[in-house]
Design goal:
Elements (H helix, E strand, L loop, with lengths): L1 E4 L2 H8 L3 H17 L8 E5 L2 E6 L5 E8 L2 E9 L7 H10 L5
Length: 102
Amino acid sequence: MKIKFFKKRLEDFITSLEKPAVAKILRTLDLLEIFGHELGMPHSRKISNNLFELRIRGTQEIRIFYTFHKNEAILLHGFLKKTEQTPQKEIAIAKAILPYLT
């Protein structure tokens, strides 16, 4: 499965992180590329009907929202997770991008 970034801003966010975190993100993206829809916990979790989050654990907790569109995984939005629950504000940002994919 092919992986695409919706905006360059997400690529910039990833490259701004610590090297171990970037390595974990790249490994998790490889898993997404291989397993696609079949990727599950602890690497991926369904948020809503067509919104998923990649879960990168470590000293920095990172979440990257993505969706599937035309046989591709589209990476929408990423952030550093600082609270126990995923902030609704971050989910809203990712959901706001979804209509632009159709």
